[in-house]
Design goal:
This protein is mostly helical. About 80% of the residues lie in helices and about 0% in strands.
């Protein structure tokens, strides 16, 4: 009887490990990537549309662009690692990380304020983020 309990405990432990590492960890990483997108869009938005920046402001803009490009790559990478059931959930709630990635890349490549705002709206809508 004790041997059966030990085998059951081992099976439950292995199942928990697999569920945590292959299901929940990618989901949490994806959620963190979305939060970073919000932070970096806000960071970049502080210098967007201001053409009279000093050297520090221009460096701030370059850092913002680089961060948004990294966010796009991270978001797409996280999406590819998500379990099928979470991808299905994203489809059901109309969240499209691939479209958001296109918006983020467009935002990082745009110098025009109005075009940048269109790309920002594309990314925030695709990720179901508030547009405040």
């Amino acid at each position: 009887m004790n041997f059966a309990k030990i085998l059951l405990a081992i099976a439950v432990g292995i199942g928990g490990y697999l569920a945590t590492n292959f299901w929940m960890a990618p989901v949490l990483k994806y959620v963190q990537a979305k939060k970073k997108v919000v932070k970096d869009i806000t960071y970049y938005g502080n210098v967007l549309g201001n053409d009279n920046l000093n050297e520090a402001g221009q460096e701030h803009r370059r850092q913002g662009r680089d961060a948004i490009r990294e966010d796009a790559a991270e978001l797409l990478s996280c999406y590819s690692l998500l379990p099928w059931w979470y991808r299905k959930y994203l489809d059901i709630v109309n969240e499209d990380p691939k479209d958001a990635t296109k918006g983020l890349i467009g935002l990082s490549n745009s110098d025009d304020f109005n075009t940048s705002m269109q790309f920002t709206k594309q990314a925030t809508k695709a990720l179901r983020l508030r547009e405040d």
